[in-house]
Amino acid sequence: MQIQIDHLMPIPLQDKFRQRPSDIWNQEITFKPGNFVKIKAPSGTGKTTLVHYLYHIRYDYTGKVQVNGKPWQAYSKNEIAAMRQQEVSIVFQDLRLFEQLSAQENIELKRVMLPNPYCTPERIQEMATRLNVTHVLQQSSKTLSYGERQRIAIIRALVQPFQWLLMDEPFSHLDQENAQRAAALIADECKARNAGFILTDLDNDQHFQYDVHYHL
Amino acid sequence: MRPFFDLLKKIIQTGVGKSRFFMASIGLGIAMLLILIAIQAHINFSQLLYSSKNQNETADFLVLNKKITNAMMGQPAKSTFTPEEIINIKKQPFVQAFGLVTSSQYKVVIQAPGDLHFATDMFFESVPDSFLDVKDADWKWQEGDRTIPIILPSDFLNLYNFGFSLSQDLPQISQETVKALPLQVSISNNIVAEQYLGHVVGFSDRISSFLVPASFMTWANGKYGTAVTTGTSRVIIKTPDPSNPTLVKFLDDNGYTTNQDKLKFSKTRMIVQTIVSVVGFFGFILLFFALLVFSMFIQLVITSCKHEIQLLVMLGTAPKQLQRYLLKQFVPLYIIIGIISLLILAALQYWAASVLAKHEMVVTPWPGVLVFAGIGLILALVYAVNLFTVNKYVNREA
Predict the structure, then answer these.
(1) Residues in domain ABC3 transporter permease C-terminal (chain B) (predicted)?
(2) Which of A49, A190, B251, B351 has its CA 20 to 30 A from that of B290?
(3) Is B9 on the interface with A (CB under 8 A)?
C-alpha cells in the first residue's frame, strides 16, 4: 500500500501555512513502504489533523491523499473498511476505546473483525505481558488509567495485518520505561509484517531508528 | 463472524424501546394472520364452489327474458330479443350452451277427458332437447302423429293440487295420473281447428312453460301459424355458475331477468368476497403500520448508537458487517412471527374444515399453497423493508 500526499492543505489552517514553510503541507510526498517516518511538530500545527487525513476520517482539506494511486474519495465505504482491516492500522491520540467493553474485549473486537483473525488470543496475552497490562485485561476500559488505555490501544492496533501503522503521539501518557517497551513491541511487529509507520510527536525521541524525519 | 457479533451485541444496544418493539411484533403477527385468513377464506370458498366433492350440480339452466316495464306494455315487440342481442348473449363467457325458446303462433285449448271439468286456453313453447331435465322415450313427434307429447311445469301441478283443487273441492291428482290422462288438444287459427291427443310425459322443474317437441312446434307453426313470425322473447342458457357476479351484472346492465332465486347465491358470494377483501385490506393496513414502526425502531437503534457505529467504522468495521449484524437481530423474530401466524391459521383451518364437514361441505383441513406463498411474500416484503432501512441509516452514520 502506497500513501502519497499531493499539495495537501487543511482549510482551517490555510492562512497560517501560507506564511511559513512546512515539510508536509502543500508539498508532494510519497511515503515509501516499510519506512519508519517521524513527523515532529509543536502543538496546534495539525498533527492529529494530518493523521486523520491520512486515515480518511476528516475531509476538510485541499489537495489530495492518494492511496495506491487513487484518492481516498474513489474508494467505497466497504473497500475502505477492508483496507482498515488489512492494510492500515491506527493508534488515536485520544485512544478511542469502547467504554462498555473490557480492555481485553476492546482488543478482541479488532482481532475478530476479520473472519480469519491475523493472530491468536495467546498472542494478545504475550503482548499484554510485554507492556505490563496483563492485570487490567479483564477490567472495564472505563476504569483504566490513561497510560493503561494507551497501551491497550497500541495492542489493539497490532492484532491486525497492516502495511502502514499510523500513530498520533502514542507514548504521550507513558513513562520512559513503558514507552521503550511499547516502541520495541511496535518495531518488532512492523518488522514481522515488513510494514512502515508514520508517527507524530511533539519532540525528538530515540524510541525508533527513523528512516525519515519531517517538520510539520 | 460469531465472536465479532457477540462483541457488537455489547456495543449496539437493541434493547431501547422494547415495549414498542413488542407491540409492533404483535401488530405484525395480527397483520400476517388477517392476510392469511383472507387468502385461506378465498381458497375455501372457491373449493366449496368448484371442487368436484361439493358439486351439487353447479351447472344451471336459466331462462332469460326482458323485464316487462310499464312503458313497454302493449308493445310486444319491445320484449323480444333482436338478432344482435342474441349474438351478444351467445358470446358471453359464462354461456355454455344457448337455445331459443320458440313460442306457438296458434291458439291452443286443452280439455281433460270425462267429467273432470277441466278446460283451459293454453300456449306451447319448445326448447332444444338438450336443455330438458325430462328424459322420456315418448318425447318425440313426427309428422302424421296425432299424439303430442307435452311437458308441464312441476309448479303447474302443484298450483292445481294445493291451491285450486282444495278450494274448488276437486280431487287432487298425482303426476302418474296426469301422465295417464289422455288430454284433448285443440289447435286452431282463425281459419281451421284440429283435434289432437295430448300426452303428458313429464314435469319440468327447470323450465316454467308448457313444452312440446321442437319438431312439432316447427311443423305446427308452419301449418297454423300466422305469416308474421313473432320474435323470440325468451331464451335459455346453460351456465356453469349461476352465482357468477359477471352474469348478474350482464343481466342487470341489459335489463334482462330470470329466476331470481337461482341468482341469490351470487349476492351471498359477493358479500363473502367483500368481507374477505375487507379483512385482507385491514391486514395490509396493519402490515403497513407494523413495517413503519419497525423501520422507526431500527432508526432509533441506529441513531442511539451513532457514536459507537462511527467508531466501529473508524476501526474498520464494514457497513456490510453492521448491516448483517442488525438484520440478524430482527429477521429471526419475523420468521418466528410468520411461523406462529401460519400455525394459528392451520389450527383455524382445521377447525373450520371439521365444522363445515358437519354440514357436508368439504374443504381441505390444511392451509392452501397460496397461503404459504402469501407468508413467503409477506416475509420477503418485511425483509426488503428492513434491509432498506438498515442500509439507509447505517450508511448515513458510517
Answers:
(1) 281-387
(2) B351
(3) no
pLDDT at B16 over 80: no
Residues of chain B contacting A115 with CB distance shorter than 8 Å:
1
pLDDT given at position B220: 87
Q: From CA B365, how far away is CA B354, in angstroms rounded?
A: 8
Q: Which of residues 314-353 of B touch A (CB under 8 A)?
A: 314-321
Three-state secondary structure call for residue B116: coil
First-to-last C-alpha distance (Å) of chain A:
23
pLDDT tens by residue, B175-200 = 888 888 888 888 888 788 888 988 88
Looking at the structure of chain B, the number of domains it has is 2
Q: Are B205 and B133 in contact (CB under 8 A)?
A: yes
In this structure, the answer to whether residues B223 and B329 fall within a common structural domain is no
| Angstroms from A193 CA to nearest CA on chain B | 19
- Judge whether B307 is closer than 8 Å to chain A, CB to CB: no
Cβ–Cβ under 8 Å, residues B28 and B290: yes
Contact state of B4 with A112 under an 8 Å Cβ cutoff: yes
Statement to judge: residues B117 and B200 lie in one domain: yes
Domain co-membership, B93 together with B221 = yes
pLDDT one-digit tens code per residue, A37-47 = 999 998 888 89
Query: Residue A66 pLDDT > 90, yes or no?
Result: yes
Does residue B38 share a domain with residue B19?
yes
Range(s) of the domain holding residue B19: 2-55+266-397
